[in-house]
Amino acid sequence: MAIFTDPIKDYADFGPGDAEWLHLLVGDWQLIADLAFADLALWFPTPDGGYVALAHVRPSTTHTVFHSDFVGERIRADLKPLVDAARESQVIERSGETNWTTEMAMRVEAVPMVRNGRTLAIVTSHMDLSSSRMPSRLELTYRQCAYDLLHMCTLGLWPDFASPTGSRRGAPRVGDGLIRMDAEGVVEYASPNGVSAFRRLGDVESLEGRSLAEITTGLLKDRRMVDETLPLVVTGRMPWRTEIESRGVTLTLRAIPLRNEQERFGALVLCRDVSELRRREMELVSKDATIREIHHRVKNNLQTVAALLRMQSRRMVSEEGKQGLEQAMRRVSTIALVHETLSQGLAQNVDFDELIGRQFRLSAEVASPTQTVSTERSGDFGELPSEFATPLALVINELVTNAVEHGLDGRTGTVWLTADREPSEAETELLKVTIADDGVGLPEEAKSDGLGLQIVRTLVTSELGGTIEWSPREGGGTCVNIELILDPTIPR
């Protein structure tokens, strides 16, 4: 559904809050379309005296009368006099039955959107009369509710800035259940779906003629857990949203006070059974908590393994065996660091810059206990999937350790880590990672020797699906370049 664009807002003579008020209208006017059984169109006056269509909504309670979208088009000549009259009079204007096509007769109403005494725009309501019949009580009540809301628009009383605009799922709609109350909160009419919703809560009597507040109070089992907004919603005094739960059933309620120039004369309450939605949300919350707990326990177990390897290395007599256990300990600790990061959030993505910022310096320090090594990092990795982050963290750990132990070879020096993430083909991204040092350089025969380099090549080519190259660094030392394709459409 389209709404007015910035160019129209630029030349619109809007006061403070006017544009926001019209945005609220278009965000909530599906309610009126459903109640009125009519298409609604929003027209904005243009400097040349005409009107342009800014938005259009179709009802979900009946068929539409406009199958083509006319947003952005100029107003038709036969509709303009009615819209002009509504704009001038600032009251609802109704035309007679008008044959706009050979197949359909429509009743058209023009409703001025008035705020602070100024007509900001005009809403036209188009209802099909070609299949007219004796309307039911439900239809008569719905149409009266729509008229009351549209009349409030002409007074600037609706939409209300206090209306709920949250994104939580389960917002009630007209078809889910509607209850109309008088000023005292006594139910005047309840739709069949509204009655069914309250019966699922445990109320088996008719709702009409009873106080909705008393009905709701009688259904509450644990009043200590009652939402503080509930009394104001079930009495229709405030345009808020709340929920009530009983017998394992959850209803979400939304109140819309009905007002005129002098007083509040009633209210509408929309209700919807959201039990299944809330159950699924709880399952997701429970699932997320379970996943975080698993990552936390894996991290703890890996740290225990690393600690055992450290203890065992201290008992080793062979220097080669001691170094092997220390290298295994560092690798396990690197994997544990990824799981620690995952245990702190809901998403299965890792902020790799935060993770590698800690690990990069630590890897250099652990590998150089007797020498001074500086580390410099530049560029951004961004967020990476956990299954991508774990092997990449291991690769960087191995290459940094190799750069310190073999590249610098006991000398003072610097290790650089650079990341460059750029768009590639077919909505993919190319991640370029460079690890460089200013040491003695890597001999050709060393490329194929050592468990660490074998691990690196295997992880890059098999786990990450990338490429890796060693080359001399300009100015001395070694440069390792890694290129990886990040494709969000391919699960890893």
TrEMBL record:
<dbReference type="InterPro" id="IPR022066">
    <property type="entry name" value="PdtaS_GAF"/>
</dbReference>
<keyword id="KW-0418">Kinase</keyword>
<keyword id="KW-0067">ATP-binding</keyword>
<dbReference type="InterPro" id="IPR035965">
    <property type="entry name" value="PAS-like_dom_sf"/>
</dbReference>
<dbReference type="Pfam" id="PF08448">
    <property type="entry name" value="PAS_4"/>
</dbReference>
<dbReference type="Pfam" id="PF07568">
    <property type="entry name" value="HisKA_2"/>
</dbReference>
<dbReference type="Pfam" id="PF02518">
    <property type="entry name" value="HATPase_c"/>
</dbReference>
<dbReference type="InterPro" id="IPR003594">
    <property type="entry name" value="HATPase_dom"/>
</dbReference>
<dbReference type="GO" id="GO:0000160">
    <property type="term" value="P:phosphorelay signal transduction system"/>
</dbReference>
<dbReference type="InterPro" id="IPR005467">
    <property type="entry name" value="His_kinase_dom"/>
</dbReference>
<feature type="domain" description="Histidine kinase">
    <location>
        <begin position="293"/>
        <end position="488"/>
    </location>
</feature>
<dbReference type="Pfam" id="PF12282">
    <property type="entry name" value="GAF_PdtaS"/>
</dbReference>
<protein>
    <recommendedName>
        <fullName>histidine kinase</fullName>
        <ecNumber>2.7.13.3</ecNumber>
    </recommendedName>
</protein>
<keyword id="KW-0808">Transferase</keyword>
<dbReference type="GO" id="GO:0005524">
    <property type="term" value="F:ATP binding"/>
</dbReference>
<dbReference type="InterPro" id="IPR038424">
    <property type="entry name" value="H_kinase_PdtaS_GAF_sf"/>
</dbReference>
<keyword id="KW-0902">Two-component regulatory system</keyword>
<dbReference type="InterPro" id="IPR013656">
    <property type="entry name" value="PAS_4"/>
</dbReference>
<dbReference type="GO" id="GO:0004673">
    <property type="term" value="F:protein histidine kinase activity"/>
</dbReference>
<dbReference type="InterPro" id="IPR011495">
    <property type="entry name" value="Sig_transdc_His_kin_sub2_dim/P"/>
</dbReference>
<dbReference type="InterPro" id="IPR036890">
    <property type="entry name" value="HATPase_C_sf"/>
</dbReference>
<keyword id="KW-0597">Phosphoprotein</keyword>
<dbReference type="InterPro" id="IPR004358">
    <property type="entry name" value="Sig_transdc_His_kin-like_C"/>
</dbReference>
<keyword id="KW-0547">Nucleotide-binding</keyword>
